[in-house]
Amino acid sequence: MDKDLDLFKKALRQINSDRELKKVKLSDKALSFLVDSNVPKGVINFFNYISFDQHISFKHVSFYQVNELPGENLYDTNQRCIAERLLIVGWGSNGDLIVLDLENLKVGYVFHDELWEDESVNPRDILINLKCSIGEFYYNAVTVEDFPVDGYEAEKYIENN
């Protein structure tokens, strides 16, 4: 996860946000949620380093405040993601969920409209895995011109790359 931390920090420098990010302690609630969800220790350590007081926009995609992860993942319609070991970490330009697959530590999109409108759908069936780590994902979001900003673009991106 050291490589991911370095890439995430590079991505932060790329966005030159006017907002100053203030580091905040990982809350007990967030830590308990991550541990209870069997998030690998390396990922928890990564989140500890990137726990800020606000969400972060990387051009057209966003990263949640780490301390908001329990609420986002345990929200009524989103619970199926964490049940399938897909940790919601952010959102794309159209609201598609950015998830970290805890099985392989790769990031992708889950189509939010299908997840929220069809209670029988398995989130893994609507996951578009971009086969990149969390650091690579957010770094690519600010450095790769045609990097996908939602699930639909991710499908096309995978076909062409």
Q: Which key phrases capture this entry?
A:
161 residues; alpha+beta; SMI1/KNR4-like; six-stranded antiparallel sheet; 8 helices; 6 strands; 17% strand; globular
Characterize the structure shown.
This protein has a 6-stranded antiparallel beta sheet with strand order 1-2-3-4-5-6. The protein has one domain (2-160): SMI1/KNR4-like (3-Layer(aba) Sandwich). The protein has 8 helices and 6 strands. It has helices at residues 2-15, 28-36, 41-49, 69-74, 79-83, 112-117, 134-143, 151-160, and strands at residues 56-58, 61-63, 86-91, 97-101, 106-110, 127-132. The mean pLDDT is 95. It is 43% helix and 17% strand. It is globular and about 40 Å long. With 161 residues, it is α+β, with helices and mostly antiparallel strands.
Mean pLDDT across all amino acids: 95
**Low-confidence parts, pLDDT < 50 over ≥5 residues?**
none
Helix vs. strand class: alpha+beta
* Main sheet makeup: 6 strands, antiparallel
Could you name the CATH homologous superfamily? SMI1/KNR4-like
Strand content: 15-25%
SSE string, helices as H and strands as E: HHHEEHHEEEHEHH
CATH third-tier fold name: SMI1/KNR4-like
Number of domains: 1
